Structure formats: C-alpha cells, structure tokens
Amino acid sequence: MTVTLDQLFSEILMARERVYAVGQPTPLQRLPAFNDDFEIWVKREDLGPIKAYKWRGAYNAMAALTDAQRASGIVAASAGNHAQGVALAAKSLGCKATIFMPRSTPEVKQSEVLRHGGEMVEIQLVGDTYDDAGLAALAYCDEHQATYIHPYNDPATMGGQGTLADEIVMSGQGAFDRVYLAVGGGGLASSVACWLKKFWPQVKVIGVEGVDQASMKSAIAAGQPVALDYVDVFCDGTAVRKVGSNTHQMCSQLLDDIVTVTNDEVCHAIRMMWENLRVIPEPSGAMGLAGILQDRAAGHIQAGERVLTVICGANMDFAQLSMIARKAGIGSRKRRFMRVHIPEGRGTLVNFLASLPEGISIVDVQYGRVAGDMQFPVLGLIGSEDQYHQLDQHLSANGITSQDVSLAEDVGYRIINYSPELFERVLFVNIEFPERAGAFLEFMSKVSQLASLCYFNYAYSGERVGRALVGMEFASDADRASCEHLLSQLEGESIRSARAVSDETFYRLTGRNV
C-alpha cells in the first residue's frame, strides 16, 4: 500500500503516544562556528537510548503490532542502528527478535544489539552487505511466518522517526529556514519533511547523500526506486542500494533539493562537531553538516538564515577514527596531497619544504629515493584556498612540476616506493620532535649539511610530539660519524630523541645487514 502525506502525518501523531515508553526527547544545540554569519542548530539524536534515532521507528512499528504478530517472532535486517532499535523494543515488549546483520558490521554495533536486547535477541551474520542480510531476513520470515520490521519503508517505522520532528517544532527554537537530513533509505527525510512542512510551510528541506550512495537522487531522477551498481560503505548507516517505494514517493514530493558529499567532506564535518561541541558522530551522523558546509561554500545559504541538521547517530567502530582524522581538514583549511618533482641532490627536499608559503602546515611526507635525476616526494598539506593559490603561484614561478594526488591509491595506503640498492652508508633513524611549526625543518637544516635524505616517512598524529622515520646517506664514513655526534647534541634542543632502527628493521628496510 502506498502511503500518502495525510497518512504519514497521522502515523507520526499516533507514534507520539508510543515511543516515549523507551526513550525521552533529545535536545537541540547551537553550533557556535558561524555566529556572525548564520545559525546552525543540531538535533542531538546521539543522546537517545541507542545513540541514534532509529529506536523511534523500530519501537513504534513493533508496538503497533498485535500480540499475535509479536508472538510469531520479530525479524529485522540492519547494518547496526535499526538493529539496536529492534533489540531495545524486543526487550521492552517481551518478544523474541532475530536480527540479520552483514558479516562486516562493526563489533560495537553487534555488542550494542546484544546489550539492548539481552536474551530476547538473536543475531545472524549473513553476507557482506545490507542487501544480503535483508534477503536472508525475508526468507526467514517466509519460512517461520515471522513479522518483518522494515528499517525505513514501513509507514509505522516512518511515523516513529517523525517524532523527532515534533520535538523540533515543540522545542521553541524554530522556525528554521533550512533543514539538512542524511538520506539512506529515506525514512528519516520523509517523516521529518512531512511534519516540518505542515507547521513551517516555508522551510526548505534538503536531503544529503554520499556521492557513491545517492540512491534517492537516482530514484528521483528515474521516477522510481533503482538499484545502484556500487555503494560506498564509509558512511555505513546510509549505505542503501535501493530506496523504498514509500520513501521515494515522499521524498519526491517533499525534498527541495538533494546534495551529495564526499567522504572527505564528511570527515571535515565530524571534526567540526568535535571542535565545536566535543561530539563525535558516526560518519552518517555528520552528513547533514557536510551538506550545510557545501551549500555555504556555494553561496546557497544567506546571512541570517537559521539552519538545522540532525546528528542521527554516534555508533562507530573506534578504529575508524584514525581514518577520519587523516581525511579531515582543520577549521576552514582543507587537506591536499601533492606529488612534486625536485632534482636529486643534498638538501633539495629540505630546501623545498623551507620555501613553502607561510601558513601551510605539512601533515604528511612520503618520500623514497629512486633512480634518476628527479625525485618525487608526496606532501600532505593543510591550508586554505588562498594559501593553496599562493602555493600554486610559488611552484609555477620556480618551475616546479606537481600533481594533486589526494585520491591516489598508493598515497592513501601510504605506499612509499624507494630503491634501497641506491643507498650508500645509509642510517635509518626514528626521530621524535616537538610538534610545532618549523621544529623539524630546523633539525633537518642542520643535518642536511652532512647527509642526503633517501627516505622520509612522517604523518601528523595529533600529539604534541611528532615522529618520523628518516633515512640518511653520507658521502663518507666521517660525515656519518659527524652526523651521529650531531644527533646526540641536538637531543633536548631541536629534537626530543633520535634512535637508530634495530638491526632487524634495518635489514627489512634495505635487504642488507648492518
């Protein structure tokens, strides 16, 4: 049955009488980053009972069932947050639930499902994608005559999600001019847009999808739900190959626009959340803010407008933080990786780094000496658009060739190509230095009088101490001995410590014995 706007509005009304049996309203909070430009507010669904909004739809859909339907067994398929909502509802309503999840589901989401559901929940890990889990769940329902709780396309599920929009209206912080909502299957966007446009007809509701997850944008363009050939899973909470028929119809009518954002833009939004609110959402939870920042840069948001987004979840595997930190910029400054062409020779890399325009931060260096008169170090930089423009002018004026390699696979995996057979009298050293502007270059400027760099591996970690693995080669044994003496003198001054690598590590790096 196709849901209508009036039916969806009624579903939200009825859901208001059910969902607060297991959770309380979540607050709105202002993001202070743009006080002098426009207001950004966030709806803190990360503070709900499962650290995501999906408890609302899952509980409402299950509470609306008859006793007989619940007794037949509940089945769901989910990459994580919907599963937690079903688990919470199963324990509260006293019914058994079998939840199908992809084998790749982060451990934190699996453990939370079991914590919320206890003995009322069984997890079945099937396939590598949400689609695989969904097909297995539907087959299980047919075999056992169980009741399936859809994560987004069922009107009762959509109605439950819409209760957060009621809280927005009742908060007293509205009206808002623009609302940006992450879109996966489309249940959140459908219900929130339905409710807000009823009370604030002038509000613009913008859906936000990942560039390689844009199933709703594709469906609207095609006039019907279509299956994507490929779905990126970095933002795993919105990684849906094909949206629902109901959500497609609602979003087609209600969304004023859909913007697509990159994973890097999402990481930048996560960093902004941390810097402004000390909140770390999961990637999908920051997609709305990423959309706001993109539209602001494009000039679509006017000064004085009041803008809202929803932090729709904060359930993320801790290990993912390291990737997010690498991809994120700092404030308004963006990350760029650049491969430069510089002549082979003592001091050329150090001199090049020292010549970079002020204000640009070096956060990554990947370099290994290869055969030939030219060398090709990769530099990870953080800077503003103006600073990058100055850098491009500097490179052009000095005849230096470079390429943007921010998306190159070898750079992303930090694969440093080098030819150890070229190294002579080589010394590999672990360097610790104060993580402040210019500290490492001061050290290398002194060392470069004695040594030539043949290997350089450094990545900013966010600590007060920077660490680099540096390979140096020498024209004579006397130069090497002088450098080792210099390193001991510089400890406690330019650097914190300098330790030669172990014999075993040296062998792995060079294929030679010390």
Automatic annotation (TrEMBL):
One of its GO terms (biological process) is isoleucine biosynthetic process. Pathway: Amino-acid biosynthesis; L-isoleucine biosynthesis; 2-oxobutanoate from L-threonine: step 1/1. Its cofactor is pyridoxal 5'-phosphate. Pfam families: PALP, Thr_dehydrat_C. Keywords: Amino-acid biosynthesis, Branched-chain amino acid biosynthesis, Isoleucine biosynthesis, Lyase, Pyridoxal phosphate. GO terms for molecular function: L-serine ammonia-lyase activity; threonine deaminase activity. Residues 427-502 form the ACT-like domain. It is an enzyme of class 4 (lyase). It catalyses: L-threonine = 2-oxobutanoate + NH4(+). The keyword Flavoprotein does not apply. Its EC number is 4.3.1.19. Belongs to the serine/threonine dehydratase family. This is threonine ammonia-lyase. It comes from Persicirhabdus sediminis.
